[in-house]
Design goal:
257 residues; Alpha-Beta Plaits; 2 domains; three-stranded antiparallel sheet; 13 strands; 29% strand; DUF2344; TIGR03936 family radical SAM-associated protein
């Protein structure tokens, strides 16, 4: 039985941003074995370290404040554990901080923030797209997993702005899901930026690290959805393109009047 638990904040960048969520978990497992730390394991014939990532990261995304929680067989000081992990971590993973948490505690995400660099020649277009968004009251997208449906992601969007030549937005995370960064970008009419730019998830906010006042300001979110049973989606591009066409954008970009 586990005797201790630590929450680590870490960065995932450089070439390791291309790791999938599954591969990241495997990389952390190998890191723990290499560091010879007393991690707790699952039961069964194929035990694995008892580690939890509260929110998976989109493939190719840089993460600046990611979280992993690890259970230990014996008591270990967070400062000692993070120091050992820093020494053994591969290039691209940097452990920033660590703190002890209760064994039965698990991070519940409240909000995430993303950044996407905007080329100078696209800056004016992006500013127009963000201004258009201020008049929007719904953004419908199609998803094919786990069920084919239309979903209004507008309630999940906390804020959108352009600062320092970057598209910056924050999304609410709920027990029923959240919006995806690429869905928001496509809905704005900036889907072409996804082909060459690299996302950064700059913040991952969890409830038990907030003040009671901040927790109280969390909105109650109910997203509308409609099941689609008659028309299959043939590609991911079709799924994403449906977002922009709902509120006045064309395939060639946003319509600004």
């Amino acid at each position: 039985m586990a005797d201790d638990k630590t929450r680590f904040r870490f960065r995932k960048e450089a070439e390791l941003r291309l790791l999938s969520h599954h591969d990241l978990a495997r990389a952390v497992e190998r890191l723990l074995r290499r560091a010879q730390l007393p991690f707790e394991s699952t039961g069964g014939f194929h035990p694995h370290p008892r580690i939890v990532f509260p929110l998976s990261m989109p493939l190719g995304t840089i993460g600046l404040e990611e979280i992993v929680e690890i259970e230990w067989k014996t008591k270990i000081e967070p400062e000692e554990a993070v120091d050992v992990l820093r020494r053994h971590a591969p290039p691209g993973i940097t452990f920033v901080s660590a703190r002890r948490i209760p064994l039965k505690s698990t991070a519940r995400c409240r909000r995430v923030e993303y950044q996407l660099p905007i080329p100078a020649e696209k800056l004016s277009l992006a500013e127009d797209c963000v201004r258009n968004f201020s008049t929007c009251s719904e953004i419908w997208v199609e998803r094919i997993r786990p069920r084919h449906k239309r979903l209004d992601i507008f309630p999940f969007i906390d804020s959108i702005a352009i600062q320092n030549q970057k598209l910056q937005f924050s999304l609410w995370v709920t027990g029923n899901g959240t919006a995806k960064a690429d869905e928001v970008c496509t809905a704005l009419g900036l889907g072409e930026l996804l082909e060459s730019a690299c996302w950064t998830r700059s913040r991952l906010e969890v409830f038990d690290e907030l003040t009671p006042e901040e927790v109280a300001r969390t909105p109650a979110i109910t997203a509308r959805e409609e099941l689609l049973l008659d028309r299959p989606v043939h590609s991911q591009e079709e799924v994403l393109s449906s977002a922009s066409l709902e509120w006045g954008a064309s395939e060639d970009g946003p319509i600004v009047e």
